[in-house]
Every structure is written in C-alpha cells, then in structure tokens.
C-alpha cells in the first residue's frame, strides 16, 4: 500500500493518513486500551472488520506510526506497538476527547464519564503525559 497525498497542505496531508474513521481508533486502542495483537483489535467494542483492520495496520506501519514485531514467547503472534511518531499523537487524541466531552454529550448522553474524564477536564497536559508514561513503562516491560 503506497501512501498518497492530495496536496502539499500539512493539515490535508495529516488527514490523508489519519482522517479515516479507523486510524485514530486503532492508535487509541493501543495507547489507552492496551491492545497489541490482531485478536485484541478484533475483540474491541468498535468491531472493525478484519480485512479493514489488516489494511489499516499496514498503513499505520508504512506511515511509521506503529511497528509490527513478534510477541515474546509466542513467535506466531504479531505485536503492534506505537513508535515515537505514534505516541506524538497523544495530545491530538486528548484534544479530540476533550472536544467530544464538551460538545457531543447532548447528542450522545451515554459517553463515558468516569474518573479519567475528570482528570482529562482538569489538566489535559498532565493527562497526556500520564498516558505516554504508562505506555513507555509497558513497552519497557516487554523488553
């Protein structure tokens, strides 16, 4: 799959990679939900079709947002991990969650409203930092 860009605009170019409805969902699943394997993704509540998931994982890998490696102790399973480029999307995910919390509750009243949302509302920067640090600790534990 070849990455193609419509024009030279930085905003449009970012959307050429991330503007699909699944791309940031997959990044969120890795960063926040701890999804790592193809099976993990297929069992998520978002219910992405396997053929679409395969294509999106390949595109994210090609863009350098994730890496694919073999799972330690199980050489048959692939492990999908965020790169530094992928982790750099954390503030964007936090901003999207903040916007959704503020502007979509009237349209979607059952949006999550747990403890983490209070933390997000009170200090977005600290919330993003915690997400990244937890992810880095998890990666370090993998070896």
TrEMBL record:
<feature type="domain" description="HTH hxlR-type">
    <location>
        <begin position="9"/>
        <end position="108"/>
    </location>
</feature>
<dbReference type="Pfam" id="PF01638">
    <property type="entry name" value="HxlR"/>
</dbReference>
<keyword id="KW-0805">Transcription regulation</keyword>
<dbReference type="GO" id="GO:0003677">
    <property type="term" value="F:DNA binding"/>
</dbReference>
<dbReference type="InterPro" id="IPR036388">
    <property type="entry name" value="WH-like_DNA-bd_sf"/>
</dbReference>
<keyword id="KW-0804">Transcription</keyword>
<keyword id="KW-0238">DNA-binding</keyword>
<dbReference type="InterPro" id="IPR002577">
    <property type="entry name" value="HTH_HxlR"/>
</dbReference>
<dbReference type="InterPro" id="IPR036390">
    <property type="entry name" value="WH_DNA-bd_sf"/>
</dbReference>
<protein>
    <submittedName>
        <fullName>Helix-turn-helix transcriptional regulator</fullName>
    </submittedName>
</protein>
């Amino acid at each position: 799959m070849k990455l193609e860009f419509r024009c030279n605009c930085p905003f449009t170019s970012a959307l050429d990679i991330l503007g699909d409805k699944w791309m940031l969902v997959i990044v969120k699943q890795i960063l926040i939900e701890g999804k790592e394997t193809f099976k993990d993704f297929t069992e998520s509540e978002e219910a992405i079709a396997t053929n679409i998931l395969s294509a999106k994982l390949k595109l994210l890998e090609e863009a350098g947002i994730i890496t694919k490696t073999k799972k330690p102790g199980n050489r048959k399973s692939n492990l999908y991990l965020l790169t530094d480029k992928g982790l750099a999307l954390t503030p964007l995910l936090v901003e999207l969650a903040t916007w959704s919390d503020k502007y979509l509750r009237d349209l979607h009243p059952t949006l999550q409203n747990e403890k983490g949302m209070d933390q997000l509302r009170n200090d977005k920067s600290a919330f993003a930092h915690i997400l990244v640090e937890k992810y880095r600790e998890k990666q370090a534990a993998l070896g």
